[in-house]
Design a protein that fits this description.
Elements lengths: L1 H24 L3 H4 L18 E6 L1 H4 L9 H11 L5 E6 L5 H6 L1 H5 L4 E7 L2 H5 L4 H17 L3 E5 L9 H18 L2 E3 L22 H15 L4
Parallel strand pairs: 1-2, 1-3, 3-4, 4-5
Helix pairs in contact: 4-10, 8-9
């Protein structure tokens, strides 16, 4: 696992350097503070089914894609195909920071029959240069809320590039594995493994996965999620 994390750090650092450069050259919701407060439409909720909640930012919301191309929708299809009787809820909001997510956490995590939450947050904190310590504190509170409600947690890590400065990079990058260890939750080091930097797998902004990239991202999540099912 340590080797996997080191490899992810290397790839992610390159990716995030490109990510920051792209955000500096164009107006984008993840970097300007614009927040689309409405997640993608989700299937009609069936209160009797156990729920998997995809709690995150634009990478969870499916920015630039149709609902059927988003990873929560594709995850639902994979679960159905493998005979798992869960309902996947898309609780992604483009532009969301850990602070914004904490403010809506009680509503998101308080849904009937919630069983698992996939937490994918932090990229927008980094893009705005917000405190890694504050981000970690916010995520800590979100994980604690989830566990108090009896939810299993899959935490998706994000990594800061060297351009953010050595101290910032160290504090930000270590926050995710530290939280996973402290709370004893499942951990996915890099959501965009095998997607980042690939022109064929990303949208024109070079930041968000396209439809093909979303399929790989779904596979990454599903692999980490399966032990929790």
């Amino acid at each position: 696992m340590r080797k996997s994390i080191r490899n992810s750090v290397f790839v992610s650092s390159i990716f995030l350097t490109v990510f920051l450069a792209a955000c500096g050259s164009q107006r984008h919701p993840a970097s300007t503070g614009d927040v689309f407060n409405k997640p993608l439409a989700t299937p009609q909720s069936n209160g009797n089914k156990p729920k998997i909640i995809c709690f995150g930012d634009s990478l969870s919301a499916g920015f630039g894609l149709s609902e059927k191309e988003s990873y929560p929708y594709l995850l639902q299809q994979k679960l159905n195909a493998d005979g798992y009787d869960y309902e996947v809820v898309n609780a992604g909001v483009s532009g969301d920071t850990s602070t914004g997510a904490l403010e809506r956490a009680d509503w998101v995590l308080g849904q009937d029959n919630g069983r698992i939450v996939i937490i994918e947050l932090g990229a927008n904190d980094m893009l705005r240069g917000l405190s890694p310590a504050k981000m970690k504190e916010n995520l800590d509170k979100i994980i604690t809320k989830a566990q108090t409600k009896g939810l299993k947690v899959l935490l998706c890590g994000m990594l800061a590039p060297p351009t953010m400065g050595a101290d910032y990079q160290r504090q930000f990058t270590s926050a995710f594995p530290d939280l996973a260890s402290e709370h004893h939750v499942a951990y996915l080091p890099f959501l965009l493994e095998n997607i980042a930097l690939s022109k064929d797998l990303n949208q024109a902004d070079g930041i968000h996965p396209n439809a093909a990239g979303e399929k790989i991202m779904t596979d990454n999540v599903y692999k980490a999620l399966k032990p929790l099912l």
